[in-house]
Amino acid sequence: MSTFLFIIAILTAGIALAMGMVSLFAGTHKNGDKTDLVFGIMCISLFLHFVLPPVGFVTVDKAPYPTEIILKRTFNLLYGSLFPWFVLYYTGYSRKLMPWLISTSFIIGYVIMAFSVVDTKQPVWLTVILFALGLSIIHGIRSARYQLKRGGKKEAYWLLSALLIFAFFYLFTAINHFGNNYFSKYLQGKIFYPVNLVPLAFILIMGVRLRANTIEKFKLEKQLRS
User: Could you give phi then psi for residue 199, rounded to 5 degrees?
Assistant: First the structure.
C-alpha cells in the first residue's frame, strides 16, 4: 500500500507542477483571469506539499508533529483554502460567505494540528478539516447549479464530475474517521487516505477544462478580428 501511495503522490506532484505552470502563465497574462491564477497557485501548492520531506503522503501521523510535517501541511492548507475561491471564480457564484467559512475552517484545523501535543485516534484537527472539506463539496455543488442556470452547462458538468469523485472519496474518509478508524485497521498508518486521492482527479479534470476554455476564447477572439 505504501508503494502505491508513493506512486500516486509523485504522479500527482508531476501533473500539478505541469498544470500549475501553464495556469500561472495564463493567469498572469494581461488577458488572464483569476480562475487560472488561483488554480495555478493551488497546483503549485499541491506540488510543494508532495515533494517536501517526507516526500509523498504523510504515512507516520502522530502528535506532536515535527516541524517538517507542519511546514509540509502549510501547502496542503493553502490548496484547501483556495479551493472554494477557485469554484467561485470559475462559476461566477458571487456569494462569499461559504468560501470565507471554508478557508477559516482550514486555518483553524491547521493551527490545532500544529499545536497538538497529545496523539488521539480521532484528532480534533482532522474533524475540523473534514468539516471544511464537506462544506467545499456543498459549496461546489451549489455553485455548479448556479452556473447551470446561467447557461454554462459545459463548464458546470466538468465541475460536477470532479465534485462527484471528490464526494465519493470523502464519504469513505468520513466513515473511517467517525467510525473509529474502520478502514485504517486494514491499512498501514492511522489515517485513511481516500480523500487525498481527489487532487489528482481534480487537477486533471479542471486543468483540461480550463485549457479548453482558453482555446475557445482564442478562437472567438480570432473570429471577431477576422
Answer: -55, -35
